[in-house]
Amino acid sequence: MAGEEKVYPVVPATPGSEPYWEGAKAGKLMLSHCKPCNTSFYYPRGACPSCLSTDVEWREAKGTGTIYTYSVMRPAKPVYVIAYVTLDEGVSMMTNIVDCDPASVKIGQKVKAVFKPREDGSKIVCFAPA
Amino acid sequence: MSTKGKAYIVGAYEHPTRKAPDKSLAQLHAEVAKGAIDDAGLSKDDIDGYFCAAGDTPGLGGNSFADYMGLRLKHIDTTDTGGSSYLLHVGHAAQAIAAGKCNIALVTLAGRPRSEGVQTGTNPRMGNPSQPDLQFEFPYGPATANMYAMCAMRHMHQYGTTSEQLAWVKVAASHHAQYNPHAMLPKVVTVEEVVNSPMVADPLHRLDCCVISDGGGALIITKPEIAKSLKRPLVKVIGTGEAVKHQMGGRDLDLTFSAGRWSGKRAFEEAGVKHKDIKYASIYDSFTITVVMQLEDLGFCEVGQGGKFVSDGNLISGVGKLPFNTDGGGLCNNHPGNRGGMTKVIEAVRQLRGEAHPKVQVKNCDIALAHGTGGSLGTRHVGATVIMERE
């Protein structure tokens, strides 16, 4: 278990992405969902990358998924695990794997969403072993 | 319209510097431009087209740099796709020349990240908040090294690729670099030395990563009539291809292949040549895994077999079946401006001219390929392929 936790920087939200960050603050992982395609996507945006429809709404993800790939960043202080997690909804996202020994992380491992503080007191989604 | 045979590379120059604390970025651009113009046997006022990437030419891309060098231009293109930009520029210059928009094109690259102390591979770099992915990715610490490392980790998981196989890419590059007096890392290394070097981002070790260097390079590209009037060997552009790869909103995540799968196909189709015809290949080697993936994507071996293909010296000139990066590449020679596309074209031109170091010169090198990736294999990138023939 890493003793020191990574401090999450705040990148200003762009117009339209506020519900994602408000959701994170409330412990919810929000996905964009294209109504005509009836599929979700990530990162969130106001135009569906499949059909360019702007008829896009927010949907809460279950917050569970599987590690697609990862890497341990050794020179960083503290060391952190970056990963792509494929959510049960079928959408993959970049994230960090936290609350575990980096040496124990494996591709295919089941993980669940946890919310970590950002520098300004808001939150960001990460994943921990399920 | 195909541009096959409509343009020739008649000038190529690589700056010998690897650390330039006393030179400005613009000065490096001017010095490589002069080097390539002299190499072609032309003069500055012959240039009527200029190609550069906005990322290493601050001041609205080419505006400030055309001014610094006093270029009078009919055509300008500042397409920036990262390290592959200069490979794209060869194709774009061929298109512009074929369309009659310019006659003699200059392409420049320069950068000085080493003098500026940029921790290129390990330090996540904050971008413009309007970059649409930034707020959702930057907080997690995506650095260049861990993005490529995630590709390597998945490739190993899916295909059984090993660290020892990746190490062979570095070993081959070091065998070539020993003959390059300008190479930053001219010492020959072994597989053991690579896999025992410190881990940077699992599974990539320090010696799986390219160098950080200052420097630059330039090319002169022109139409057939002018090329044939010059005294340089004729290097004809016979095929070019470009392609973009991203993740379609997280629905198409597959980090085991690159855009080279598509750019390479386009270039081979235009050139009308087969893989067995390629005598030499310059393959962008930001990391060892980059080479393994791109060789698969370009079709030099089956998908998933790249690790096996690069093993046992198969990329070493005079030893293996596909000599690659005979200047030592980004892994051992240089990586000017953190952008490897330019030096890939330059070494391919040297090979086709018979001007590579005699110890690494490929015999009867009549057809060569240069390929690279710009951006990040771990997120989104643009691949570009150029196939050239000695006439």
Please tell me about this protein's structure.
The complex is a heterodimer of chains A (130) and B (391). Chain A has a single domain (18-129), classed as OB fold (Dihydrolipoamide Acetyltransferase, E2P). In chain A, the strands form two sheets. Chain A has a five-stranded antiparallel sheet with strand order 6-5-4-7-8. Chain A starts with 17 loop residues before the first helix and ends with a strand. In chain A, strand 7 and strand 8 (123-129) form a beta hairpin. Chain A has one helix at residues 18-25, and strands spanning 30-34, 39-41, 56-60, 64-73, 80-87, 92-97, 110-117, 123-129. Chain A is mostly beta strands and 130 residues long. By secondary structure, chain B is an alpha/beta fold. Chain B has a single domain (7-117, 209-390), classed as Peroxisomal Thiolase, Chain A, domain 1, CATH 3.40.47. Helices cover 33% and strands 18% of the residues of chain B. Chain B contains 13 helices and eleven strands. Chain B has helices at residues 25-40, 62-69, 85-98, 134-137, 144-159, 163-177, 191-195, 224-229, 260-271, 288-298, 306-310, 329-333, 341-353, and strands at residues 7-14, 49-51, 75-77, 104-111, 199-201, 204-205, 215-222, 235-245, 280-283, 367-375, 381-390. The longest helix of chain B is centred in the N-terminal third of the chain and has 16 residues, at 25-40. Chain B starts with 6 loop residues before the first strand and ends with a strand. The relative contact order of chain B is 0.20. Classes of the chains: A mainly beta (130), B alpha/beta (391).
